[in-house]
Amino acid sequence: MSLCLLWPALAQPVTLNPTPAAINAIARAFGFVTGQGVALDMLAESHPQLAAQVTGAREAFEASFPDVEDKLAAELRAAFGTASFTKFQRDVLDRVIDSQMKQPKSAEQALAFVAEVQRRAQGEGVDPEILDYLLSVTYAGEPAAEFADGFRQRFRTDGSGKAQGLRLRLQLPRSWAGRDSELAGVVRRWVSEGGNGNAAIQLEIRDARGFSPTKTDIARFIAQGGVRELVIDGSEVVDASAYSLETLPGFSALLRSTTAQATGQPTVSWTQMYQVFFRGKAISVMCTAVGKPGDTVSADQDIRRIQPLCRQVAAGMMVEQLYD
């Protein structure tokens, strides 16, 4: 079922970043959850002997994605406006019911579908774009919880190219879309909300020109304002402190920058960084939240939301050569 033809025009901003691709994905996710709910209702009615299994599958999915249909609906309602969304919702429901009534399931097929819903509760067998938004709306207020609940992706460098000879392992939340970067020193960049969000995490490896500091060197470096010399012009070092990853010394820093747009409206961005040194290389996990032009509040809120996630990602990084 294609939902694209059902969409009304956007009416106002939504909680998640309302790019056309995002609205497309949210609408697909809403149709997916609505269809699953209707299918389970019909199975319970047509196969009452499977009521317990149907209830168990429904509860498992709800436990993983609590109130997800209502959360997706809220995003679409904010985007479309209440009247247009109500019509959209009714059209989706009519199409789903019509589709399900034309394809009744046998008891064997019903059991297979129940098992499929159980797998979906673990994030398995779900279209990646749809899963990204089931996770995005579920963990919008606490991105670190997605990571903690085990919805993760894994990334490894083999030492080639921008990795500059280093073999690293990193884990990130599943719904953050990873892409290679053309920027010097940036190995890979992950963007929230399936690549449509305003927050990003990136892994950087840069040549530290042989600099292999001790913890004492790091303390002196911070005290003397060395972090300020590393950041781009226009950025303010709000906080800096010593940090270590296993035996590797380094520092963490919180940076704030404001850039002027052509419209004259300022854009605020925050960056939380964790940097350690190994074999003359500087390894950094950088987490960034960027506000909308003229909005000086949203980026402040976003960086507070992603800071716990940033700590988890940085702390979970593994340098394989430490164990050679």
Helix-strand pattern, N to C? HHHHHHHEEEEEHHEEEEHE
* CATH homologous superfamily grouping of the largest domain: Mog1/PsbP, alpha/beta/alpha sandwich
Instruction: Give the overall form.
Output: elongated
Determine the number of helices (DSSP H or I, runs of at least 4 residues).
10
Known CATH architecture of the largest domain: 3-Layer(aba) Sandwich
**Residue runs with pLDDT of under 50 for 5 or more positions:** 1-7, 9-14
Q: Summarize the biggest pleated sheet.
A: 7 strands, antiparallel
SS-based class: alpha+beta
Relevant terms:
single chain; about 325 residues; 10 helices; disordered N terminus
What is the topology?
Blueprint: H1 20-46, H2 51-64, H3 68-80, H4 82-102, H5 107-120, H6 128-138, H7 143-148, E1 152-156, E2 168-173, E3 177-180, E4 186-191, E5 199-207, H8 215-223, H9 226-230, E6 235-245, E7 248-260, E8 266-278, E9 281-290, H10 298-315, E10 318-319
Antiparallel strand pairs: 1-2, 2-10, 3-4, 4-5, 5-9, 6-7, 7-8, 8-9
Helix pairs in contact: 1-2, 1-3, 1-4, 1-6, 2-5, 3-4
